Amino acid sequence: MAAPSDPAARPAIHVLIVDQRLAFRDALATRLQTEPDLAVVAKAHSAKFAPRVLVGRSADVILLDADLPEDSAIAFCSDLTQNGDQSRVVMVSAASQPERIVAAMRAGAAAWVRKDESVDHLLRVIRGVVRGDTWIPPRELGAVLRLLIEDQDRRRDGDDLLSSLTRRERDVLFLLVEGAGRKEIAERLQLSANTVRTHLHSLMVKFGVHSTLEVVTLARPRLDAFSQIRLAAIDNSIRFLLTRIHSL
Hints:
Blueprint: E1 13-18, H1 22-32, E2 38-44, H2 50-53, E3 61-65, H3 72-82, E4 88-93, H4 98-107, E5 111-114, H5 119-130, H6 138-157, H7 161-164, H8 167-178, H9 182-189, H10 193-207, H11 212-247
Parallel strand pairs: 1-2, 1-3, 3-4, 4-5
């Protein structure tokens, strides 16, 4: 009988590889398939295509190209988290900027690995995240922790942030959280594209972030709380009106 520490004795870890470079994902898949406890269940060239190749299957670990265009990797990771997907996401990138790592962690990623790291290191990370571990490049750990602390302080000090927004900024923010893009926001609010761009930039500045996705991530809990308060206020107003009607 194989020893418990023997990789062959453990159930296979199902891996999905999402990378825009064909040569990289094929070479990585070939290497991972040589490991007795790993099974590459699918490969995809984009975050948009990834769900299609997984139809009828599941992945324990998703190796996700963090350098996909238009922040699609962060958006894909965030969607997985919001939908309750249990896959552990390992961001794989050619670089390791602290700001991008923080954005990935906020979106639900479990690890960040540079592409110039050894495959043996990547294998340790894959097996680690399945156990519930998190991995951040040691050289970036200090900067990442500092950004997270600053973000926590910013959230604590910004409980009244929504009230500091202009009416139009709040309109744009509500639509942004609903999932509307710039064009749809412009059409629904009857604004020019440049005006919408200005409002989005203002929101990013006020929230202290670098992307509209981060604005949504930070704003959603506050808007939920704001909506509950607003509904409670409406309910109280209705009760008051009913009382007044019955007293007539």
